[in-house]
């Protein structure tokens, strides 16, 4: 079988499995499985594949037909400027979450001699948000918290692989329970899907992202209520909070922060113009 034959057959099976971009995905699977640059799949179409080459490709194709996301099959995801490892306990980081990174960077005080900004990322998952922030701010230290030990281990491994481990502490914990702070910036992309909506999500999400990374309680807002109540005591005076929100949740989250006494509340939009992130400052004193 040639590479072009394999790609054509894989694209057919992926289309039958309901994937929109089946041909491109088939090419990516072939490139990853054979260790080729994506363009080489097109230029090497006549290459004859050996049985040693087609067996792992078939295994990868079967996983994608079962709607496992490509990033999980490959085990890695590009986020911000970083390349991150994933594990079954981590959410697959989404491009929209880069809005939270930018919001966090905008809220931090500018670098100053003798100052070490301290950041906290609640529900760190792969560590994507925290590590992106630290990669941009070499003067800062960061703590990542996750309730899933496997996620915390992956975040720590990502910190090591990116050369950031000496500025990162990852702990297993339940939100703010074990932490006193104070932090200059708290960021979080908490689970925010209303529990009853999870069953209706795409298979890539409901079958492969961990349930704890999705379930935000009956109305999806439970983690924001907790953060609105408990985060102020862990911030430096004038310290800031930035949280990612689901589509349509920005006004509700802004309102519950306002009710809890937060100041300078604002909404940041993602590239599609969706209110994706709510920012606020804690007490001045
Ligand atoms: C939506 S995911 C975000 C992961 C990562 N920050 C990202 O943006 O890709 C939410 C994360 O919160 C974690 N989590 C859920 N409940 C938690 C809790 N009670 N305390 C700490 N972390 C929690 C989940 O394990 C998951 O990693």
Automatic annotation (TrEMBL):
Cross-referenced NCBIfam families: hemK_fam, RF_mod_PrmC
UniProt-recorded name of the protein: Release factor glutamine methyltransferase
Domain Release factor glutamine methyltransferase N-terminal: start-end pairs: 5-75
Keyword Nucleus: no
Keyword S-adenosyl-L-methionine: yes
Protein family membership: Belongs to the protein N5-glutamine methyltransferase family. PrmC subfamily.
InterPro entries: DNA_methylase_N6_adenine_CS, HemK-like, N5-glutamine_MTase, PrmC_N, RF_methyltr_PrmC, SAM-dependent_MTases_sf, Small_mtfrase_dom
GO MF annotations in UniProt: nucleic acid binding; peptide chain release factor N(5)-glutamine methyltransferase activity
Record-listed S-adenosyl-L-methionine binding positions: 123-127, 146, 175, 189
One record GO biological process: methylation
CDD domains cross-referenced by the UniProt entry: AdoMet_MTases (cd02440)
Positions with a binding annotation for substrate: 189-192
A UniProt-annotated Pfam family: MTS
Highest classification ranks of the organism: Bacteria, Pseudomonadati, Pseudomonadota, Alphaproteobacteria, Rhodospirillales
């Amino acid at each position: 079988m040639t590479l072009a034959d394999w790609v054509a057959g894989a694209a057919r099976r992926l289309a039958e499995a309901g994937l929109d971009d089946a041909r491109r995905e088939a090419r990516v699977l072939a490139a990853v499985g054979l260790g080729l640059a994506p363009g080489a799949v097109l230029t090497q179409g006549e290459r004859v594949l050996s049985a040693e080459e087609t067996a792992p490709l078939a295994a990868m194709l079967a996983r994608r037909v079962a709607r496992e996301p490509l990033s999980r099959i490959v085990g890695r995801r590009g986020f911000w400027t970083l390349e991150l490892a994933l594990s079954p306990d981590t959410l697959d980081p989404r491009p929209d979450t880069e809005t939270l990174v930018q919001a966090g960077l905008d809220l931090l005080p500018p670098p100053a001699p003798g100052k070490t900004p301290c950041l906290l990322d609640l529900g760190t998952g792969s560590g994507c948000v925290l590590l992106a922030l630290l990669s941009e701010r070499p003067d800062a230290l960061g703590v990542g918290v996750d309730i899933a030990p496997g996620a915390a281990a992956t975040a720590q491994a990502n910190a090591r692989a990116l050369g950031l481990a000496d500025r990162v502490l990852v702990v297993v914990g339940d939100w703010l329970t074990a932490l006193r702070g104070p932090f200059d910036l708290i960021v979080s992309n908490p689970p925010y899907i209303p529990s009853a909506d999870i069953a209706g999500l795409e298979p890539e999400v409901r079958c492969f992202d961990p349930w704890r990374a999705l379930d935000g309680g009956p109305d999806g807002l439970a983690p924001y209520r907790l953060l609105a109540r408990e985060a102020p005591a862990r911030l430096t005076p004038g310290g800031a909070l930035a949280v990612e929100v689901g589509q349509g949740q920005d006004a509700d989250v802004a309102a519950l922060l306002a009710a809890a006494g937060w100041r300078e509340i604002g909404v940041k939009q993602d590239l599609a113009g969706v209110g994706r992130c709510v920012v606020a400052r804690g007490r001045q004193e």
